[in-house]
Design a protein that fits this description.
Layout lengths: L1 H6 L1 H7 L8 H22 L5 H7 L3 H12 L6 H19 L3 H30 L6 H20 L4 H7 L3 H29 L2 H5 L4 H12 L6 H19 L2
Subcellular location: Membrane
InterPro entries: AA-Vitamin_Transporters, EamA_dom, EmrE-like
Membrane topology: Multi-pass membrane protein
Length: about 250
């Protein structure tokens, strides 16, 4: 979060005086729900959950974007879209509860962290579309990160980050990968995603989560993660639910 905020800081400084006062609470909401809290939730979940499965669960973002839009922003929801939501939730349940042994049972709860993160993503996407419309994507992205960057920095100094950086072998290399993740997968990706929200619909933009399970599963397999049959079943059902939601009129 700190590195991503720093990467977009020049754009935040350029746009900070242009923001209408009443919009700051929505920028803070987007920063917290679309970036800060999900970053922690995903990090916690992936200490016990395969990255491929985490990527599939992330596809629930489209479903929760639709639900939040209908519940809080007056967006229409048809019975076909509701069917897609039910199908997606069923697939998620299969994915989370699949597996054997106590270790897998424990992993079930870690999967729920990602489900909560996708709910937050859904709220954030709707805030950007309906409360931050008219603002450029780069302005929304940089200012949203600016609202949470200082909080992340304060929290960072309460951890043993500096100690590990100077005493744990490979820590500097790990920091390099975190920096790559922050710049490309958070800062730049956030700008592109917010641009997509502005030029289309929240549902269309969130349907980019179609590709995340494919990429995550591919990297997970290459990294030696074990994927079971029921995991594939859950993945297919989740993607089917997201497909129904996006195709329904």
């Amino acid at each position: 979060m700190v590195i991503a905020c720093a990467a977009l800081l020049p754009f935040a400084i350029k746009n900070v005086r242009k923001v209408e006062p009443h919009r700051w609470k929505f920028l803070l909401g987007s920063g917290l729900l679309g970036n800060f809290l999900p970053a922690f939730l995903f990090a916690i979940a992936e200490t016990r959950l395969a990255s491929g499965l985490a990527g599939v669960l992330n596809s629930l973002t489209a479903l929760f974007t639709l639900l939040v839009g209908a519940a809080l922003f007056g967006q229409s929801i048809t019975w076909m879209r509701m069917l897609g939501i039910v199908v997606g939730i069923a697939g998620t349940a299969i994915l989370i509860f699949s597996g054997n042994g106590n270790a897998e049972l424990d992993n079930m709860y870690y999967g729920l962290y990602i489900v909560l993160a996708t709910i937050f993503y859904g709220i954030s996407a709707n805030l950007i579309k309906f409360r931050l419309h008219g603002m450029k994507a780069i302005a929304v992205s940089s200012l949203a990160l600016l609202t949470v960057g200082p909080v992340a920095l304060v929290y960072l100094f309460t951890t043993d980050f500096w100690h590990k950086l100077h005493h744990v072998p490979g820590a500097w290399e790990a920091l390099m990968y975190i920096a790559i993740l922050a710049v490309f997968s958070t800062a730049i990706a956030l700008v592109l995603f917010n641009k997509l929200i502005h030029i289309s619909t929240t549902l269309f933009a969130s349907s980019t989560t179609y590709l995340i399970p494919v990429v995550a599963l591919m990297w997970g397999v290459l990294d030696g993660e074990e994927i079971q049959l029921w995991h594939y079943v859950g993945m297919v059902i989740i993607l089917a639910g997201v497909f129904i939601v996006n195709r329904a009129k």
